[in-house]
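Memo subject: From amino acid sequence to discrete backbone structure tokens
Action wanted: Derive the backbone structure tokens from the amino acid sequence.
How to read it: Take the token row as a discrete description of the fold.
Attached in line: The record itself begins immediately under this heading.
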Amino acid sequence: MYKYFSTAYKFGGFAGALSILSFISLSFLYPDPTNLNLVFGYVITPIAIFLAIKFFKDYSNEGYLSFSEGMSVGFVAYMLEAIISLGGIWVILIIHPDLFEQVKESKLDVLATNKGSIVAQVGESSFDLTLESIRNMVPWDIALNDALWKIIPGLFFTIIISIILRKNPN
């Protein structure tokens, strides 16, 4: 079992750590680091998945890769990245409640600034529901959102990369 996941653990863990480092760095530069951290996740997730699957294929599996092996390795990589990122961001927001309040205020400001266009698109009741959910937001919500936006694209990228790198023995 270790053979299948040794590279996935390394690259998924490294990507998760980079995601936390990105969140910390962006929090010094922007009042709401969450959106840019998601963009960073869209870049680092496919790179981590690709490297995990490629290293598994080349160094652990003698140059061969089935689709299911690629999917398994990719799954471990993006899930580990998401779990590490979730835990790190949640702890950061718990330790620094002022950062959490700053993120929350930024989201409320964006909502207030764009109220007219949002109401025109989705209606007053949806706007009010969104406003209430942001007011009731807790640090866990921000961390979970970040993790989910690593898992969803991670699945997509894993499928594509597993198909591209697939090579079965003749």
About this structure: Residues 67-95 form the longest helix (29 residues).
